[in-house]
Amino acid sequence: MQLRDDFVAVKVPATTANLGPGFDSMGMALDLWDEVSVHATAGTTEVVVEGEGAGIVASGEDNLIVRAVRLALDRVGAPQVGIRMRCMNRIPHSRGLGSSASAIVAGLSLARALVGDPEALTLADILNLGNEMEGHPDNIAPAIFGGATIAWTEGAQARALRLAPPSAINPVAFIPDFELPTASARAALPTSIAHADAVFNVGRAALLAALLSQGNTATSAPDTHFHAALMAATQDRLHQEQRRTTMEPSLALVDWLRAAGLPAVVSGAGPTVLSLEPVSQAIRRDAQAAGWRVLSLPVSPDGVTITRGRITRLLSDQTAHP
Predict the structure, then answer these.
(1) Are 55 and 271 in contact (CB under 8 A)?
(2) What's this model's pTM, rounded to 2 decimal places?
(3) What is the mean pLDDT of the chain?
């Protein structure tokens, strides 16, 4: 298979995962985007990074996006080429906002654009290759499909279902000035949990999935029933408290926000904290005074988008995906 384009570009959103009880299965795309362009050349690989990670992330073949491009080209039998890549990164690294998943999805989608044949590398292929690289599909799925997603695996195959959250879900991120590698956060998890805690999380995750499926039936106007249900639906006994020692400031912030009546959760593996509803100016001011960067990050209905190339279009659609 030959490459049909030699200059392509994509943009890919930040994501949040878990959303409280949906550990390794639930995620959501957020309106914060990395943009990446690739020029296929006969020379060596060069990576220029602006914004988040500049001067830190790998600038050659070890770069995560480059590795994803290579993997995808191999899988479709396309030739490997020199890569001249430019990244404008806005997603903070090692903060629980899906930066690694976004990089992987960007690389796989860039390969799709280089090949220029949408059937050569399907959405299901991108989901499965992304899961193969990341190890779990909870961030990969919303980065591809946008909106909220439920993701799972069947044997070696990753699957995802896209949900359309109601406008009442309007996230605000509290981003700290310290990082937490995902591996460190996962290492803090116990090998087993009590049956009662598992039952608790199953019920909360089911309730959260129902709320995230309501489309525009729940408006942005105050809805006490929806809010009360969302507070219950974002409770967790599976992973957040177990990670307190790795990110005490984050869990303290979750406690404070929930005491103030906000449906707050740890975003992904942390240490970013997410409220699924807007916060008051007083809350925002106090959190900023304590050193948190506070960003309103609405749910993005779109996932990764090819912005330059023969198949310039959204990769996502509005249906369930195998």
Answers:
(1) no
(2) 0.93
(3) 92
